[in-house]
Amino acid sequence: MSTVFTFRIDGKDVAGTEGQTVMEVAEENGIDIPGLCHLEGIHDRGACRLCMVEIGGSPKLVAACMTRITEGMEVVAHSERLLEYRQAITEMLFVERNHVCAVCVANNHCELQQMAADLGVTHFDLPRINPKVDIDASHRLFAIDHNRCILCLRCVRVCDEIEGAHTWDVMHRGLETRVQTDMGIPWGESSTCTSCGKCVQVCPTGALFEKGRAVASGSKHERPFLPWLKTVQEERGL
Amino acid sequence: MTKPRVATVWLDGCSGCHMSLIDLDERLLDIFERADLVYSPLVDFKEYPENVDVCLVEGAVSSEEDLHKIKMVRARTKTLIAFGDCAVTSNVPGMRNPIGVQPLLDRSYIENATLNAQLPSRIVPKLLPTARPVHRVVTVDVFLPGCPPSADLIYCLLDDLLSGRVPDVAGARFGR
């Protein structure tokens, strides 16, 4: 028997089972906590920090996707302070690389673009970095445009946890951080990639896309493999 | 009482935002019954006048001419609006920023030229090192993102300003 915890999110009484995260219980109760790296069906990573919440009067913010629920906890998921932080994080995600929504394959289907609209980010106070960033189009079917990558690492996790290939990983640090295929070789030369396309499907932006897609045509709404994995995970108690 | 004085300016952009402005259609009659259009690429005034109340600025600040123009516009305008993604983020004109001016010009006018390869040096204004959003150069009062912002949003914005309300651009977003 798993223990049931009752607690509150934004003053609303909610309940969840031991081991669940604040994010999961919020989702089950129709409370929208913003997030770009969280995706049901793969393990959470706490990469994007957009789901930061306040807990029980502690001045420290924690990521809702990485925080296990406890009995009687008081979660504040929406406040003026949190909105300001989330707007600043969204802005930083934009200025760190070269996001040009108007000519992006994911225009209109992009979770980062939608996040800016939802949070009321209408411009960037921070100067753009304008980094010189590569595109790897060596794969037969897909391409990665690092200009659009926000390092949510959904591709890394889905490739490892669902496809079992672990083609994707991360290299370098700080502003130089990039997702990579195999040991940093061109994607098209990867011997582990199965060309399943799961990474493309989970990418929240236009970083990973199918070749031949025009601007604004890279819709990514079908993710049938994720609920299936969730079941297997649960069965095996992973 | 004199009518509010409205202007529009076109810096480094594709004119799509101005096309969207024209898409106001019959609502233009409503707007310009309540305001005077005193300067715009859509009309034939040669000089940007003094005492402008509202100016919509399309485009990024990319050349020395843009820089000169936007400083003059700012000095003569009460409410300056960054109009569309190029003005707000530098958008497509900003795609040259990681490349640098010289490699960009060499690629465009020398390497890819099949006839009479030479860098443009006369009449056309010099490019600045980067194409910048308007608010990196002068103070902007209202941001209206969108590529382009829809006619509905432009109407809401102008209607709010001409009615003395704080403009509400909810629903505006990058791209589209």
Explain this structure to me?
The complex is a heterodimer of chains A (238) and B (176). In chain A, the strands form three sheets. A five-stranded mixed sheet of chain A has the order 2-1-5-3-4, covered by helices on one side. A three-stranded antiparallel sheet of chain A has the order 6-7-10. Helix content of chain A is 25%, strand content 16%. Chain A is an alpha+beta fold and 238 residues long. Chain B is α/β, with parallel strands linked by helices and 176 residues long. Chain B has a single domain, classed as Rossmann fold (3-Layer(aba) Sandwich), CATH 3.40.50. Chain B is elongated and about 55 Å long. Chain B starts with a strand and ends in a 14-residue tail after the last helix. The interface between A and B is medium-sized, with 26 and 29 residues.
CATH class of the largest domain in chain A: Alpha Beta
Helical fraction of chain B equals: 25-40%
Give the end-to-end Cα distance of chain B, rounded to a whole number of Å.
39 Å
Shape of chain A: globular
The largest sheet of chain A has its strands arranged as 2-1-5-3-4
Say what the CATH topology of chain B is: Rossmann fold
The percent range for helix content of chain A is 25-40%
Pick out the low-confidence regions of chain A: none
Instruction: Sum up the overall morphology of chain B in one term.
Output: elongated
- Per CATH, the architecture of the largest domain in chain A is 2-Layer Sandwich
Average pLDDT of chain A works out at 91
Order of helices and strands of chain B: EHHEEEHEHHEEH
Give a count of the beta strands of chain A, DSSP E runs of length 2 or more.
10
Largest sheet of chain A: 5 strands, mixed
Structural class of chain B: alpha/beta
